Amino acid sequence: KNIKKYFPIKGGILRKTVGYVKAVDDVSLNVLRGETLGVVGESGSGKSTLGRVLLRLLAPTEGEILFENQDISTLGNRQLRPIRRDMQIVFQDPYASLNSKMSVQELIEEPLVVQTKLSRAERRDKAIDLLEKVGLRPDDRLKYPHEFSGGQRQRISIARALSLNPKFVICDEPVSALDVSIQAQVLNLMADLQDEFNLTYLFIAHDLSVVKHISDRVAVMYLGRIAEIAPKKSIYEKPLHPYTQALLSSVPSTDVRHKRQKIILKGDLPSPSNPPSGCSFRTRCPKAHERCELVRPELTEVGNGHYVACHLYE
Ligand code: SF4
Ligand code: MG
């Protein structure tokens, strides 16, 4: 609820705070048990920061984070520890996120050592079971990350994230670093695991095509704010926000009924330390008008769980 995450910018010889990067600027959303909420935006839109704040890997500057009705936004590390079991993250880069000096067995069992009292044999059995569930072989646990391909490493990251039977998993661009040919395999695996483990996903991606199949709802972020959030069908068939329309126009469609003219956005993403007044998208919006410069549009429901922040729909 109303999450903000501002990073101070230091300047001058005194290293005083001269401004803030408003990475997340007043975001409210809910994630329903068992669903996948896709979160899409360009780099710099604040989507990864939002994910880290929701898991309390970063403290919010403002706002409340309710996990199963418990406010976790101000808890200290000690109080967060039992809750961390239930919330995990799979990072974008399986090369950077796995410690290369640890064997696969050690990587998968590390959370179990920290958080459970399982015996060595129980941890080994658990690792074998998880490796099979992610499509690797039991013997793979004796190997090291560099012995695997990118896709296999991401399978190891997923096994590690699932070792504590979490309820909520944030997937931060888990397939972006992988070859296109294996992206679908990993996405399908994640969808299967979601059913098997009753997982709830917040699935971060930088374009709408990646989250199309896995999401139940999709949120589109721009400069730290939500531009539009809606059930999947509405976002892909009836996008309302001019930014969503532009993003979608670059997704190749096989369906002739949904062929769209490609919309090219002018200019670059403005700096999140100095966002435009009014609607932050106005400098690139093909439909910007006078009001857009003066008044910031609020996220408003236009029907059936479809919310949009744009003056065209008020
Ligand atoms: Fe474009 Fe104005 Fe809507 Fe912003 S509020 S998306 S500038 S039309
Ligand atoms: Mg990111």
Automatic annotation (TrEMBL):
SMART domains the record matches: AAA (SM00382)
Molecular function via GO: ATP binding; ATP hydrolysis activity
Q: Which GO terms describe its biological process?
A: peptide transport; transmembrane transport
Which keywords does the record carry? ATP-binding, Nucleotide-binding, Transport
Cross-referenced InterPro entries: AAA+_ATPase (IPR003593), ABC_transp_ATP-bind (IPR050319), ABC_transporter-like_ATP-bd (IPR003439), ABC_transporter-like_CS (IPR017871), Oligopep_ABC_C (IPR013563), P-loop_NTPase (IPR027417)
Annotated ABC transporter domain ranges read 1-248
Transport keyword on record: yes
Protein origin, superkingdom: Bacteria
Q: Does the keyword Nucleotide-binding apply?
A: yes
Q: Which PANTHER family match?
A: D,D-DIPEPTIDE TRANSPORT ATP-BINDING PROTEIN DDPF-RELATED, TRANSPORT ATP-BINDING PROTEIN
Family in the record: Belongs to the ABC transporter superfamily.
Q: Indicate what this protein is called per its UniProt record.
A: Peptide ABC transporter substrate-binding protein
